[in-house]
Amino acid sequence: MTYKLFYADGSASQGIQMVLEELEQPYELIQSTKDRSKQRPPEQIKINPNGWVPVLMFDDTGMYECAAITIFLCDRHSEMNLAPKINDPDRALFLQTLVYFSNSVQTAFQTFYYPDRFTDSIEGEVSAQRRGIRRLRETWSVINDQIGNNKWVLGERFSAVDLYLFMLTTWFSSTNDHPKVEEFPNVKRIADAVVLRPSAKLVYK
């Protein structure tokens, strides 16, 4: 079976592509876009009417939401040990961190990059962006403290949550007054290790 991944550069779909690479699964990339004013593949819209990527197709069906796809793929191919199994003590931290990335960290980025989603007026968009920047610093500080002296997010074991962390660090923009990743040394240490992996080199070139 070959997965189909609807993707766009600079989006969360690159995180899923890394997961597929780490799991050694065959997949086909289907070009889409983050620009909601442009045409997107009908098959993608059928699965995710929001129009966002990533969308993963498999077994004549599909799903969206990056964190959900990550968990699904890791559990479906559990023999690759990219995530703690159901009864593993690290499972709770794995799930907690993925959901925090999705609900809190990504929302902070969205508040900056898509301020129109968070205010009723054009005048309010600059304020929303300022709040997004402050929220980036708040949420990444939580993750940095959580990691502590761990080699990886979960301790000594590499997992898909490290890929997700790296993906999110690529969204920082120094030209937009975002905090620098160097402000979060534990985060940077893990990102620097992930970027050396073949999956990251392939996806981010």
- CATH level 1 name of the largest domain: Mainly Alpha
Q: State the share of residues found in helices, binned by percent.
A: 40-55%
- Helix-strand sequence: EHEHEEHHHHHH
The overall pLDDT, averaged over residues, is: 96
What's the total count of β strands?
Answer: 4
Specify the structural class: alpha+beta
Rg on CA atoms, Å: 17 Å
- Residue runs with pLDDT of under 50 for 5 or more positions: none
Morphology: globular
Widest β-sheet, arrangement of strands: 2-1-3-4
CATH topology call of the largest domain: Glutathione S-transferase Yfyf (Class Pi), Chain A, domain 2
Annotation field: number of helices? 8
CATH-derived architecture of the largest domain: Up-down Bundle
**What share of residues are in beta strands?**
5-15%
Can you tell me about this structure?
It contains eight helices and four strands. It folds into two domains: 3-80, Glutaredoxin, CATH 3.40.30.10; 91-197, Glutathione S-transferase Yfyf (Class Pi), Chain A, domain 2. It has helices at residues 13-22, 42-47, 66-76, 91-113, 125-147, 160-169, 185-194, 198-204; strands at 3-7, 27-31, 55-58, 61-64. The model has no long low-confidence stretch (mean pLDDT 96). Helix 1 (13-22) packs parallel to helix 3 (66-76), helix 4 (91-113) packs parallel to helix 6 and helix 6 crosses helix 7. 33% of the residues are buried. The chain is of the alpha+beta class.
